[in-house]
Amino acid sequence: MIVGIDASRAFIKKRTGIEEYSYQVIKHLRQALESEQVILYIRADQEADLDIPAAWKIQKLWAPRFWTQGRLSLEMLLHPPDVLFVPAHTVPLIHPKRTIVTIHGLEYEFCPAAYAWFERWYMRLSIRFSCWAAERIISVSENTKQDLMRTYAVPEEKIQVIYEGYSQNIEYGISNMELDASMAIRHAKPYLLFIGRLEERKNIVRIIEAFEILKERYHIPHTLVLAGKPGYGYSKIKNLQSTIKHREAVIELGYVSEQEKWELFQEADVFLFPTLYEGFGIPVLEAQSVGVPVVASGTSSLPEVGGDAAVYVDPLNAESIALGVQKLLSDRSFRDGIIEKGKRNVELFSWKKCAQAIATLLRGSELYCLRAIKDERES
User: Is the pTM of this model over 0.70?
Assistant: First the structure.
């Protein structure tokens, strides 16, 4: 069997969300598909920074534009693999009959104001086509599966739920006992933390509003650290920051490296993730894995990912977000309980499990990984 993988999103230098998923899945498929012939399709100007098994090869494809629908389609016409795996939701126009695609969420449908009109149009067009064209669809959560069925009428039997994993801090040479906390100290402990793109969908405006409530009403000594590169709607965030009383206590770091990310997690008092919509929500697991309590939205996939190990709030209500944070800061027993539950919850998720499930699907076998995780939680 020859497996083709669209790896064009996996080797972007500053990876977020979908790019990180693509990278981690390919990284862990090296073991799960070690004996199979695998072709990684990447752009001509990219470098694959992974050692690959002897049976694998990297195919660089050049195109000045329209790489997926033009050049990758041509490759599928001339040299089609037995099965094509697309980890980043865009199936090429020409593709093998056995094509499997991962759909990460329908954020643009449920949070249209958080996207430019062209982006909404393009995402709707490409993901509708991918759902129609693919033989099987991998959904990263049960919530996303239900969204696909309700919004695009995708047949249930076509969708397989395979949960994402999360990167552990030990993968980056950082231990709980020997952490260089210089970065965290620079940013004025104690602090509340958000990590992710600074955009409208991530609900940064209400996070800042909730922080103002916490400073004014509860007089917390914390700063608010926002780590991530700007996205759509960033101007609203900057406008709000310029008007609030405690603007000096809001620190923006921009994009941070993996090591910097783990340093920030390790020293945070609370991780804030009350976003408007998530197809999965890896940062929730990352925070739980290092014992940082999480305040997250009680909507979309986040309760599914966080289990009983997070404080869930109304993302449309800054007061609700503030109360969730204050509960964790003021009630030590409650906080400790959330932390312990979080450490148990993350044991259900790993990139190894994710890759093994995808490998099984690529080989043509059926999976029941969603049921397995539900059974583990109930046991």
Answer: yes
